Amino acid sequence: MRSDAAHRSPPGLKIAAGLGLAFLHLPILLIFVYAFTTEERSYQWPPPGFTARWLAVTWNRPDVWEALALSVKVASISTVIALVLGTLCAAAVSGSRFFGREAISLLVILPIALPGIITGIALRSAFSLAEIPFSFWTIVLGHATFCVVVVYNNAIARFRRTSGSLMEASMDLGADAFQTFRYVILPNIGTALLAGGMLAFALSFDEVIVTTFTAGQQQTLPIWMLEELVRPRQRPVTNVVAMVVVLVTFLPILAAYYLTRDGDQVAGGGK
Amino acid sequence: MTTAVSFQEVSRHFGAVRAVDRVDLDIREGEFFAMLGPSGSGKTTCLRLMAGFEQPTAGHIEIFGETAEGVPPYRRSVNTVFQDYALFPHLNVLDNVAYGLMVRGVARAERHAQAEAALDLVKLPGYGGRKPGQLSGGQRQRVALARALVNRPKVLLLDEPLGALDLKLREQMQEELKSLQKALGITFVFVTHDQGEALSMADRIAVFSEGRIMQIGTPEEVYKRPRSRFVADFVGSSNVLPPDFTARHGGARQWASLRPEALRLAEDGVGIAATVVGRAYLGASTRLILDAEGERIHAVLPAGASLPGDGAAIRLAFDKADLHVMEDQS
Question: How many contacts (CB atoms, under 8 Å) link A and B?
């Protein structure tokens, strides 16, 4: 709507943009197509036939359910940890000035800038040095390192926009620290936390690299899929699972995008 | 008379910076008190000490006879109108005003009724359903005022309350604040860097400079009889005359101040010789900038007088009674 007739982009640019988008998204559609193919040993194009039976097969495979349950559990707990720690950290960094403030801000963000493989190796050697056996909790710890960053980044942006005098005004009007958090801070950062939490969940849900280094014998969903690709039989089951993963991770990210898009508006009004 | 706010030797240091430096202050109950000074003079820090956002480094503060040090803002019977108004963006106007009652556990119907009454008081009836973002600056100011007053504070603190408003609105709000204060009988303490605002609104003014109070007095005292060169210069830009100059023109050999409007044009042969350097048209009057015996002197002359042009040589005269010798000669 913003581009009027005088600012039409040249057709060449439009075609290039279209091709770029197609290159990005067609392979994802391909995954959906193969979820319904009748050929189970190889990815043959065009698919010899279509069937919905893989949905039922997937539904009845206990290993899928185990992996899915583990992934959901890991992602949920990592997200909760990230929400608490990320919010507290953002509040501390934005609310006060202290020695090393910038350094802490950088250190919190660093895990997401580091390649996952570095984080993975570092955590693995740390765990074995401390003789911590690999378990559900080592996976959660690994995921929390980068989930905290996402929540922190979202929260700090909102904290910076929320003027400090709002908190002073609340205290001035008779609210103690808890009431100020409940009635002023939370409503103002609520959508940012929701968005951060959803992104964190999605990140954790499809994480492979850090998980490979921090998991023992357990398989999260992405790890399970990786293993499954090597097997010769029932390949479309992987595609069915992939389809579910796309939906599970895509929807929260989309929601997060819409929640933070209108930055000026603060949702959660009323009481 | 009861003392509303009392500072005894109060200091607030930020590292090496002495934001407030051994300030003594007594604000009377029911008074409209102004803290006037340039930015960085410590007036806002004093206000924050009263509100409880800052704690004194040294000294003693009492609010209605009760020790205030260590008492958090939410346990003081003091409310603040913030410079940026600090309205809660997620609450509508009515809930903003009712906030103080809400956190104190007043029932919904009761607090909404009181909030409505407070909105009536600041002439915003029926605005309760709007969000702060939908209001103009002047309206937000009124909501902030209602939000503070609904708690019936013993002292109302106003931090540069009119700073963000345009001239017309500012004059209107000055009158309203003044009459509101009279009607409610609450002690108002307001911070401003605008001497005109302080002079026209306050019962008494404290003039701040570099963390200290230079003078406390009624507007007339501060305006007509400044204690020091700083006060003379800051409050209404008096002419500050050095001892030699004063001595030559009928005074003692001391620093003195002379209001610009006390000067008038004189005939040849009498008064002080001066040269016009520039002039500023003020509407009801004109300010002449003059050079007299090496001193830069301002004279404000009423409109209608025939005025000399730039570079003209003129004579100046004034009544000796208007020459004020300052107490603080430093």
Answer: 76
Between A4 and B288, the higher pLDDT residue? B288
Chain B residues 66-85 within an 8 A CB cutoff of chain A: 72-74, 78-80, 82-84
pLDDT in tens, A136-183: 888 999 899 889 999 998 888 888 877 678 989 999 999 998 999 889
Residue A148 and residue A121 in one domain: yes
Closest partner CB to A169 (pick from B86, B95, B102): B86
Of residues A168, A269, A271, nearest to B86 (C-beta): A168
Backbone angles phi, psi at B22, to 5 degrees: 45, 65
Of A163, A174, A188, the CB nearest to B151: A174
Over residues B263-290, mean pLDDT: 86
ipTM: 0.82
Nearest CA in chain A to B100: A173
With CA atoms as reference, the chain B residue closest to A186 would be B90
pLDDT per position as a tens digit, B212-250: 999 999 999 998 889 988 998 888 678 888 888 888 887
| A204 in the same domain as A90 | yes
Q: Examine the fold and report which residue of B183, B216, B231 is the final residue of a domain before the chain moves on.
A: B231
Which of B127, B44, B58 is CA-nearest to residue B93?
B127
Q: Which among B84, B104, B131 has the least Cβ separation from residue A174?
A: B104
Nearest to A70 by CA among A168, A136, A165: A136
Cα dihedral A141, A147, A148, A149 sign: positive
Whether residue B330 lies inside any domain: the answer is: no
Contact flag A176-B73 (C-beta cutoff 8 Å): no
Distance CA A224, CA A126 (A): 25
| Chain B residues with beta carbon closer than 8 angstroms to that of A269 | 90-92, 131
Contact B186, B154 (CB under 8 A): yes
Residues of A with CB under 8 A from a CB of B: 163, 165-166, 168-176, 179, 183-184, 187-188, 266-271
B100 contact A CB<8A: yes
CB-count exposure of residue A204 (10 Å: 0-12, 13-18, 19+): buried
What's the CATH code of the domain at B311?
Answer: 2.40.50.140
- What ranges in B150-242 are assigned the alpha helix state H? 167-184, 195-201, 219-224, 229-234
